[in-house]
Amino acid sequence: MPLDTSAYSLALLRVDGRRWNELRRIHAQIRTQAAADGSSYLEMGHTKVMCVVNGPSEPGPRRGGVATGGGGGGGGGQSKNAEVAVNIVIAGFSSVDRKRRGRGDKQVFELQSTISQALAASLHTHLFPHSTINISLHVLSQDGSLLAALINAATLACVDAGIPMTDYVAACTAGSTSTYAANDEGADPLLDMNHQEEQELPGLTVATLGDSDRVAVLVCESRVQVSRLEGMLAVGVDGCKQVREILDRVVREKGIKMIQEGTVERGVGLNDMELD
Amino acid sequence: MPITILPPKAFREPPRNLHHDSDDVMSDASSDSEDSDSQPGGVSLDSGETIHPRKRRSAATTSGSTFTKRPKTANITSSISVPRSAIVTPGERITTDPQWMRGHGTYLSSATLGEQAITSSLAGIVTRTNKLLSVRPLRARYTPEVGDLVVGRIVEVQAKRWRVDVGSTQLAALPLSAINLPGGILRKRTETDELQIRTFFAEGDLVVAEVQQLFQDGGAVLHTRSLKYGKLRNGVFMAVSGTGGGSGVVRSRRQVWTLESANNGGPIDVILGVNGYVWISKHVDPVIPEEAKNQQTGITNLEEVVSATMYSSQNDRIEPETMREIARIRGVVTALVENGLRVDEDMVTKGYNEAVEMALVSEGGPEDVYLGGERGEQLAAALTGRLA
Amino acid sequence: MPREAEPSANEKAFLLKALQDEQIRLDGREFDAYRPLELTFGDEYGVANVSLGKTKILAKASAEVTVPFADRPLDGIFTIATELSPMTAPHFEVNRPTETEVLLSRLLEKTVRRSGALDTESLCLVAGQKCWSVRVDVHVLSHDGNLTDAACFAVVAALRHFRKPDTSMENGVLTVYTPAEREPVPLGWLHSPFCVTWSFFGDEGETALLDADWMEEQVRVASVTISLNRHGEICQIAKLGGVPVEAVALLQCTSVALTKVKEFSTYLDSKLAEDAKRRDKGGFMAELRAENDRVVG
User: Fewest Cβ atoms closer than 10 Å to its Cβ: which of A78, B113, C120, C255?
Assistant: First the structure.
């Protein structure tokens, strides 16, 4: 199904009616699973993922050689940093083609490794020697920007689990309206690509640390002119900052609700800080 | 190479977070991230309208039906307005003033971004002790402190110690030298004890213990050198969240007490481990054999006698009435946690009394111990009403 | 699984101190300099032997006629297989892919296959029935860091060097000719992508190095692999986590990478030309021409 790119140049509207710099609706919740240390549910448009974090905790004696779930950021076992183990399950019904993914799927392995290493750089793993932070992600529905949604959900769940971190790792995708062959200067960068756009147009996934311009993850899997990169990266980094604000709002609202309900006592407000 | 992009059209700023606005009061209605199924667009960037808390609150209250099903607790407390600045989130700067010292939950942001600032690494609330600033997380795993009473589960037996799961980030250690050995408190540890280590505690046993000391890296060392501590039997275990943050067990005056239960249940022991692990069991008086009673019972002698049953894993006979009341207390604790209330002696006792009364008026009669769902909410509402 | 021994704390500190305070690498290279890259072709077509310092990689391309995939009847099959055996380093095991191996094979896949370097449609012989299956086996013979760049170079070199047997279709009969009957033909090649890997050091990844050796790889805090061709098209970028790096620095890395890729491209072209000349002299064609030139003496 070729994407009708001519429509964009006429109305400057994308297939789903967004403008170039608009994110899709992001809806997120934290503390969705009572049994876990931390959990989250995140929707970016029609991409829907759930995340559960258990730990940091020290694995007991290993019985019968349990295989670790995926990429180990920072090494496990008796190291002086906590290991971040990520496990991704992609539901068979999550995409249109009902593709079954085996355990040894390299693409899933790469996703796990990426998320593990990206979070390990932000989480203060040195505080938890010998421990493992188990992050389990479930993909319920896919409509583009999968890696970005997974990173955002994992970040939220880690915040919920109370694991100290430098800052949020927020991610989003950016694309370009030009195909790789067309070297037109008028091509616009696009923010937050959906599945259809990902199929047709070049794009990349960016994750940044907090409010800074520092890029934790940059994955580009399509052919694109090198001159397009700067624009796409700029839009992507800006999008990450927007995503960070959204994630931050979700956490704050949950915290304020807990204070209102009396679960947590109020602390010293930031404004009282300067008094003495 | 600076990053610049020329926008093809006017770029509308997304609604930026307003958390620097201290008087931006979040109402309860606008913070219902869980209820947004009924309110589409909980967080939307695509529209030009920024989120107006007041506007959304009025919309929510006029529609009315959204909140009728909510527990009363929320309505009671929703009158308290909480400024957004009450919460700090990861990456938020707390202060750049160098007179403060940084405590848990904070780090010093790097100097390359200007002056060094004490920055939060958690979502939580700021607390200060003299010049020490720390952030208490909204929720986290249990962090052990010396003197804490904890309930734990043996997960590994090693040569001279046990590894105990206490719900912390690391397993705690219980050295063989830190338990009461059968045959008196002053007995010296021998090699035979090391060989028989599993006869004291084996994998899967539950223990109540005290944190004796902490390692540099945060690991805890436990001890059970008191008659109050040791192996647990005759009851049920439950895990709620501990003092790491959020609701659950809080540190209080008494973590262990005996409750005289209703409906012929007899006395019931409740142990609220500071780590969030709870043990509810039938109270068993130390069995003192007749011949021992007749003798002059000194304290060491009593120890000796008691320690014979100390490491038994056999449950005593428990009457159905007692079991029912144990289940009722368990239901009370669950209801407290589910409704975000703290778990301590006061709350559990009051909650239990309330539950007994509720059972009397319910269809099932006094034998009805169900405290889930609406019954739990009802219980919580009654408790908060009374306590407020 | 035997774990690889990490460099000792002392060694790490030494390397980082030299790098950050003195701006010196252990082997004295410039930050943006590669180790000597050498390429030799085997006697057969499609064998490329690449060495980058002490890193040695052998890539062998081969082709056979098979049935195309049912969902892609007009495309041939192209696979890249990577092999990291215990020969490379003791912690690699046979039949259990390590993280290094999976990520390497994904990177090669994205760089060469997904970017469309090889024209898979030209591998089709009879639509839906017969096609060429081209396979490149990458064997890592010695691992001293920067496998990605060396492996990618080897794969591209092997494929560009490779000749598949010539075929013809006449009246529905497919004939595959042996090299003696007809000179084998090169693959339909569209562009040559190369990987350039930057490694970052320091708390905020402020120091960037090209072509890190094994020691540097173990100490680095983040890395980014950028695949480009000499026309300035990005085929793939992979910064899979690690310490965050300034976006501007990444853009600079990309532009430096482009100049490196152009150097690779020129080097490969000259090597291919050299090899073609060598083969031409004593090759089959020369033999034929020698007959015509024979002077009766």
Answer: A78
